[in-house]
Amino acid sequence: MDSDMDKEHVKGAADKAKGAIKDSAGKVMGDKEMQAEGKMDKAKGAAHSAVGDAKDAVKHATDK
Q: Is the residue at 63 inside a domain?
């Protein structure tokens, strides 16, 4: 079960990093499409992190 939670957090961090790179590159190159993709990737990363946090909360609640 721990590995599933860790996967969500890892996916979230990876998507956030990828999104930040695309967002920044899009700004520098004036590529609004790339910038939008970056923002979407960052949002997807935040969602994965939230899922991981929710799973953590459930696990900690059931451990007590």
A: no
Which single residue is written with the structure tokens 């590995």?
3
Contact between 45 and 19 under an 8 Å Cβ cutoff? The reply is yes
d(CA 58, CA 9): 15
In this structure, is residue 41 part of a structural domain?
yes
Residue 6 — pLDDT band, cuts 50, 70, 90? Answer: confident
Q: Which pLDDT score is estimated for 48?
A: 94
Structure token pair of residue 20: 């930040």
Q: Which domain holds residue 28?
A: 2-58
Q: Above 60 in pLDDT, residue 42? A: yes
Distance CA 41, CA 45 (A): 6
Q: Which two tokens stand for residue 57?
A: 């909360």
